[in-house]
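Recap quiz, item 2
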Amino acid sequence: MTVKSGAGQLLSKAATGIEGFDEISLGGLPRNRTTLVMGGPGTGKSVFALQTLVGAARRNKQSGIFVAFEENIASIVANAAAFDWGLPALARKRLFFMNAQLSPAFVATGDFDLGGMLAMLEAKQLEIGARWVVFDGIDVLLSLLRTPRAKMREIYRLRDWLTRRELTAIITTKIDGEVASNDAANYGFLQFMVDCVVRFDRRMEQGIPVRRLEISKYRGSAFAPGEFPLSFGLHGMAVASPGPTDVPQEASTDRVSTGFAGLDQMLNGGLFRGSSTLITGAPGTSKTTLAGLFAMRACERGERTLFVSFDEGGERVRRNLKSVGIHLDAHVKSGMLQMYSGRTDAVNPEEHLLRITAQMAEHRPRCVVIDPLSAVFRTGALSSARAIGNRLIYKLRDHHITAMITALVEGDDAQAEATELQISTIADNWIQLSYLVCGGERNRALTIVKSRGTRHSNQVRELILSDTGLALADVYSSGGEVLMGTLRWEKEAEERSRTLLRETESAHKRRELQFAEADTAARIAALQLDLERHRAALALYTRDDAARHVSSGERHTEVRRLRGANGEEPAGPGAKRRVARPAAHTRRNGNGEERARRGQ
Amino acid sequence: MASKRMKKGVAKEAVTTVVVMRLYIAGRAPNSVKAIANLEAICRQHLKDAFKLEIVDVCEHPQRALDDGVLVTPSLAKLSPTPSANLIGNLSDTSSVLAALGVAQMAPAR
């Protein structure tokens, strides 16, 4: 037998496999030591103990013994059938149940002890190689021992035996609201004796039962302090652990479409992946429509999506969305979209959070819609509701899920109310939908209140719903008043007619200018012609002048030749003709030149 | 001490019934030792020899005890005559032991 309890040696822990518990206990229960589980009736002590045994048997093939002092084995197995543990098969192979109810028919005739029972358990341990043991409802047994002294003696006996047998033990004990004073001493002693104490509690919070657990002692180990809510699902008990306390550093710059082009544009390209968007608004401001559109587009992109709706079944949500052109049926059929609907009237907020978490674990979505989260807050205290909202958003962020969360706000000061939920401070984006009443009608307005890390429109837009879907329209502000709906339409019509008038006017002006232009051009052409005529005339004159000059020169030469020729050639009528001829020749030449230019 | 002892007593006088009992003990634990002593005294005084007693030491025969549904030690099972009864404790409360064994009714017949 080796006792591993050297000083400074790290405590070895045995995981329970209970979701959340191993996180808050930083690894599970102390191995080969004893854990005391205390709590009122119906708080989940037995489930905790049994689930731990089942978990060890299933995961690590470790055998265990369950000693039931309070409840019949048959009923324990029957109750556990609600969970997917496969208990009957395990009970045959790795778990041994000992029926230890002391029936009222037992006649108490004096002091007794646990020596015999422990001898039996020891034999059983050796037989099946058990590593775990549960004593469920030890208070029932202790109540049969008459003196406090005897009780203490048996507690010691039990402790010694457990230490000797190196068993990891869970002892559960019931504590009611008022514990008799002599019992209190025993419970105090029990708590002192064990290495770890887990308290279970069940309270009514605004008519809703809330179960919690708290680790109140853990010898030699740190643990997460405080009370943690419990829920019961298909896999058994789950503890709502706060998750990692550090905020993950990575931040995506990848944009995801909101599914609505107009909104994407307002958000400068869409939402960041892994961001959470809060959509607040009064009833009927089409929060669900926006969320539905987001879900549909996500599915179309091939991203697994979870749609959580409260107080309205998935069928109804899909039918209503169909009326605005959002079709989700095919995506549900293909498995891309999972719809989960919860009723909020009977379940506490913690439970919802755990159920949503379970759905997320099962479906592994990249996009999540929760519609409306505010419904969860109707039940339970506001402080716990806030905490849940925060935890949900953190959880989504940790899983890098892009989420759209709607919240119903009523009353005049929507902004103040939404802030009261305090989700708005954690959510990355906040889109507010509201009704603006003016000119005798209500119109939907969309505003981006905040969008972290992205440039976004500061404009109020009018949200228009039709059979074909959603559209955003700019709103007019005139004289400090925002115009929407019919007033906007009127304003638009007015704008249109003004544009038309302006267009007509400008067309007219253009024509006038065109005429002036054409007129000028024509005049330029005429002047050009004139210019050329003048040039031609000038050229003609220049040439005549030159010709005259040449002919005069020629004449001079001729005259001289003729004079000289008097001696060489006999003057005759031919000479006379020649003198007269140059003038005629020059004239003809000029005419010829003019003809050639015209032909050009 | 013998782990399993049989004491057979046959009524020589006109005792109508024989009480058949089985006592489960845990080795030499103080309560177990006390129980044996208390039971032997009661039998001697009230049953004479009209009883059959089997003593089972749970430490040596744990499986038998498990099969019999024994929980704590010492405990005494009255097997016959009917009604059967289960008694737990060291049997120091003689009157309730007698009542459970139905000896009080038998006393006048003695």
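The domain at 5-109 of chain B is CATH 3.40.30.10 (Glutaredoxin).
Chain B has one domain: 5-109.
End of item.
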